[in-house]
Design goal:
The structure holds 2 protein chains of 2 kinds.
Chain A: H1 2-18, H2 22-35, H3 38-61, H4 67-108, H5 117-139, H6 151-156, H7 160-193, H8 196-219, H9 225-267, H10 277-295
Helix pairs in contact in A: 1-7, 2-4, 2-9, 2-10, 3-4, 3-8, 3-9, 4-5, 4-7, 7-9, 8-9, 9-10
Chain B: H1 2-19, H2 26-48, H3 54-74, H4 80-97
């Protein structure tokens, strides 16, 4: 009986020492929920742009006078699509790192006791380590691997309270030790999104889409309603992609700042949060991105 | 990069505008189509390559574009104005190579 009482007291004591307040836990959960779909948004940007370029290319191919030239241009468009996929991989990789990290935070900060936590975290750690390795190979950057290592610690412990205690400790360690990583990844993404190259491609795409479709109309005097509607859809998608790019810049900036604040807040002993404005900004900007993404067809 | 891309797009627009001139022969129209295909190759070379590799990609295409310009020059005066504009693009690429 005494043993049981002692175990309960000890567990309660440990839990109490490392407990994250509900407001801090909520902050982490909201951060994780808002940012885990980022790869989907970035894919809309790169795929959307590639799709518009391909379609206007097909309109151009249809204006060529010989079947050989026509087919040759279609092959060029196909090859370009493959190159676009490769080129967007690095960009996607950065977003995927942020998303995996967010999912890891969600798992760790979950209130419900999860039997599969060890396996889940181990899988996420493995995925994140892989993405960091790929990123380092492709960019010659030097993001450290092996700094996460949470699953191993959790696997040593058993029982709800011990795991709960360990989760809280690992959340604090993960958030504080990852802050510079999140800042680096965010800065890389923002740098790419703000680059003159990407701006130039998007701005000129409007002109070239109109130019290629004009030639198509000149060549095919009787255009179909379908192709005209398709042209309007492409113009609309291009506008939305431009808006998506601008909103991604805002969101990733908010994400970086919200994480900076989170890293400070989880280290504090107080139970209340001093600053949630940045998280609010992040949630608003992600909500706006959701609306834009839904309008890209 | 954005400057080069703009020049290439301007060249594409110039060639496209000329394509439906009813005074052009079938051969001249084909030459313009081939020119457009080369310009689109240039567009891809700019978009696909990193900044330090763009000129290398464009240099591989400019000889063919030059040949087309020479052919169009020898065919008559109808394409002279366009040839001058296309030569400008080639000159810019050649200048940037140094």
């Amino acid at each position: 009986m005494n043993k049981i009482l002692l175990t309960i007291l000890l567990a309660g004591l440990i839990q109490g020492c490392a407990t994250l307040s509900s407001s801090k836990r909520e902050y982490i959960q909201q951060f994780g929920l808002s940012t885990r779909n980022l790869p989907e948004y970035s894919l809309k940007l790169t795929d959307g742009l590639s799709n518009i370029r391909s379609k206007r290319g097909v309109y151009f191919a249809n204006t060529l006078s010989t079947p050989n030239l026509h087919l040759n241009e279609l092959d060029n468009i196909y090859n370009q699509q493959k190159i676009d996929e490769v080129n967007s991989a690095l960009f996607q990789n950065s977003f995927a790192m942020l998303s995996l990290y967010s999912t890891m935070l969600l798992k760790l900060s979950s209130n419900s006791y999860n039997e599969d936590l060890y396996n889940n975290i181990k899988e996420l750690e493995y995925g994140l380590e892989n993405l960091i390795t790929i990123n380092n190979q492709l960019t010659s950057s030097n993001i450290p691997t092996g700094f996460i290592n949470i699953a191993a610690k959790i696997s040593f412990l058993s029982g709800k309270y011990y795991i709960g205690y360990n989760q809280n400790e690992e959340i604090k360690r993960l958030v504080t030790s990852s802050d510079s990583l999140i800042t680096d990844i965010s800065n890389n993404i923002i740098f790419h999104l703000k680059s003159d190259n990407l701006n130039s491609i998007i701005e000129n795409e409007h002109m070239m889409l109109s130019r290629n479709y004009l030639t198509y109309i000149q060549q095919n005097k009787q255009t179909s309603v379908y192709s005209d509607l398709d042209y309007i859809l492409l113009k609309n998608n291009l506008d939305k992609i431009k808006a998506l790019k601008e909103n991604l810049i805002i969101s990733v900036t908010n994400l970086k700042l919200a994480h900076n604040i989170m890293a400070v807040e989880v280290s504090k002993k107080n139970t209340t949060l001093d600053n949630i404005n940045q998280l609010k900004e992040l949630l608003i900007s992600i909500s706006e991105i959701n609306q834009i993404v839904e309008q890209i067809k | 990069m954005e400057y080069l891309l703009k020049e290439i797009y301007d060249s594409i627009s110039n060639v496209e505008a000329k394509r439906y001139d009813e005074n052009l022969s079938k051969i001249e129209k084909t030459q313009l189509e081939l020119t457009l295909i080369k310009l689109r190759d240039m567009e891809r070379a700019v978009i696909n390559n990193k900044n330090d590799e763009i000129l290398l990609g464009l240099s591989a295409i400019t000889p063919t574009l030059n040949e087309l310009i020479n052919e169009m020059e020898s065919s008559g005066e109808k394409l002279n104005e366009l040839n001058v504009k296309l030569k400008r693009l080639v000159n810019i690429i050649n200048f940037l190579k140094f």
